[in-house]
Amino acid sequence: MSPGSLVLAALVPLLAAQGGMEPVDAASPAPEASRLHVRLASRYRWTERVRTAAGEEFDLAPLLAELIEPLPGSPAVRPLFPQPAAVLDRWHREASEAAAAQGRSAPDHLGRWLEIVTDRPEEVLAGLERVPGSVVVDAYREPALVLFGSGTSAHPGNDIPPATPDFTGLQTGICGPAPIGLDFWSLWPVSGGRGRGVTVFHLEVDWYFGHEDVSQLQPSAWLGPPATGSMADRDHATSVIGILAADRNGYGLDGVADEARIRVGSLVGLGGIGPAVAAAAAAARPGDAIALILGFDIQQVKPRDLVPFEYLDACFMAVQTATLRGIHVVEAAGNGTNDLDDPRFGGRFDRAVRDSGAILVGATDGGRLVRQGESNYGERVDVSAWGDAIPATGFGNLFLPGGDVLQTYTDGYGGTSGATSLVTGAVAGISGAISTQLGRVATPVEVRNLLGRHGTSVLGGIGRRPDLRRILAALGLPDGLALDALETPRGGVATGSLRGSAGGQAFLLVAPAPGRLAIPGLNRPLLLDPATTATLAVYPLGGAGTAAVQLPIPSDVGLAGLELELQAATLDPVGGALSLTSSVQLRIR
Q1: Angle at CA 315, nearest 5°, toward 58 and 377?
Q2: 359 vs 328, 420, 427, 444, CA distance in Å?
Q3: Where are the alpha helices (DSSP H) in 205-328?
Q4: Which of 267, 358, 362, 534 is the most buried (most CB within 10 A)?
């Protein structure tokens, strides 16, 4: 039987212009209240009895309460990061050890931070200046953000009437080859490259739950309390999740990391951005990702003076602690037209001064290799991606039948929000591919370096546009077995290539599910489910040690949506040694 001639079925029983980083008031729990972040000197915790350098002893918590309690509004004093002390101690120890190993400065202990909620912030700040012994080293008011909408709805993830068109053709430029696209097409066929095993935590305000094209957008995705009583812009957040995780179902869009697990956390329900980052980090494992796609409006020199979240020290230190513990953080650079190297930012975006470990993302003018006018820029911006004309769920300017918010689509999402969504998908795919193929956890430093070094040059101080094919090559992937595309239509032919020893043979293996089985003497594990693995075809490797893969796909309608895992065992003709290739995915449309 000729290679590839077996029948596979028998083997397997905003508005476009407003899509950027919008100011979102997750900060204010009540309309007139303000949040103050208070940082204590490193030797203090607010729950402990402290001794000043002059020898004076006092209990800090009662003193703070005495200073601020007489003010109208009875402000509340509480830890900014509510995790138990033992958890914060462990995080600090793990992050400090990682920082030392990387030659970086140790992070601040998150237990040193307080939050005071008050309607008289200026008087409270003045009172904090009277705390003796330089106990308080910093206190500031969290910038006001803007709240939009709230509420959830539940609807099964399927194409509700009327029928939704297939919009995936609109994603060709973004997902296709460099220099125009990021080349998700090269990443997707590599098993793990769609974000397998990675959880992405999206921190915003509220979403349209039950959208027809995003089955993961259900209330079960909540991290912590849902948003209540806000006016959140759910289109903005729903667009992010659609870019990342839209279902491959023949209509609507395809998510760039659709195998990643999605969790969503409301900045309202979780108490602001710093606590939300900590909550996500508490639920995350090394290799997971946190997407921060909004930012602060500091209004320092102009209206809409937008900056990344890590502008504030407490947010910066929460992000730094997370990345040092192995969690990827992808952060929008912001749509403020700001040079982040400007001295007015006090070195907050100078890696020589401080480095959170996050990936900061700028936006290009659509597919053009120039900075989008409103995107922030500077040395701290690591990478960039499309900032306009991004197809996404939400908004409805592309498709909105009968005003149904669960069938909304746009072809004009953008800004640094859209760019950061795309880069988050790339991070999830890289992390998933490294875990699946190489059997290790991708570190934030490694992934940030891969994204920043292997890409297409962009004008305007916003880093490179990542080239995922080049990033895979830098990782040595794919290794021995490659498919030209993830998906092949029924009645079509899946094509690819095999590589091994000259004059040897390659046994193409197939299974309906992935697995991991270490086999003594082989170069890598079997990455297919060992209980269901079968030999699909045998290919002779010619004098160059290569062979073309051609797999005809039957026209059987029952194969639609079927996904297969493929891996090859190659035989060296001299000595008969076996080696295993990396694994790939094949999906039948």
Answers
A1: 145
A2: 8, 9, 10, 8
A3: 234-245, 273-283, 313-324
A4: 362
